[in-house]
Amino acid sequence: MSLLGARRPQNKMWEFIVFSLWLVLILPALETVLLSPGRQADTQGIRAWFMLILIFVSALNVILSRFWISGILVGLAQYLLVNPNLPEWAHLNERFAGQAMEAGLATAILAFLVAFLIPKPNRKSLRDEDRVWLDYRDMFGGMWALRIKERINTSATMYDWDLRLTWRGFVTADGSQLPDQLPAKIEKILHNHFYSLMRKFVPREWITTRLQRPDSERLASQTEHDQA
Question: 55 is in which domain, residue-wise?
Answer without folding.
Answer: 2-117
